[in-house]
Amino acid sequence: MLADLGSDALEVFYTGAAILADRYETLGLHRLLPTDRVWVGVRSTRANVFGGFHYADQGYRHLQMGAVVTRYGRLDRTAEAPGLVALDLLRAYAHDCLHYGSYREYRVRDGEVYRVRYGLNIRSLDGCTYSAPDPAGTVSTRNLGVVMEGATDREASAIARQAAQRLGIAEPTGVDRFAFRDVTGRLAGDDLAHLPAQQAPAEQRTASRQDFLAALAAYGRGVNNPYRAFLADIGGSDADGLHDVIVSTMISGCLAPLSAWLDQRHGLGAFAALFRAASYCGPEPDTSM
Asked: What is the distance between the alpha carbons of residues 137 and 238, in angstroms, rounded to a whole number?
């Protein structure tokens, strides 16, 4: 698909892929998502359908160990803005490489495969999750799912940002500006103020550009911003160090380094104090060294 966009788009993706491989190697991920396990939708027979990272119902499939994504832009016409299309695909691939590479553990429940561990997160066989959903209006998340998704996208957008900087890709104008800032991890509060305040009900969505922008804004408000606030709140002056420990722990599945990092700065038992829901009824995770 990238070949159809020209040599510049290929250069963007392969430049980013090299950055990605080096970065993930330092974090402990030695095997990336095979590119033949990534399916990219590039055309739609419906008018005005808008694809990209925030297209509905796409992303990584854990049991199938593959990713289903769409290219950025209108899918009923030839791709525009090849550089942004390539950066968006790079971000999606970098994101799904971490989903693919994060530790997971399965059990069989009632004859079906059931995931009980994923990265930092724990779930009992009877459905109890270790951390509770954040209350409405939360600024700094304490939900492990949001923490992991935020950490994953922080890595992916940083890789896209470095590729854009290395190749001198300028920020576009118009609506594409929001997508570029989102892809490169630079979407700010002022940007969100110009985007839809909420998504339309699922049954009313048409996969239009407006739906895409609403999903982009919802992701920023619900994932990226709460994770940034969490790093600032809990990590303080070593927010980057906390982020690195979180990602390496997601990959290894060993909670001890993260638990030790938190204990040293916030007192013994900080992992449970921060993340354990009062309603959790499963086994306690092993956080010992």
From this structure: 26
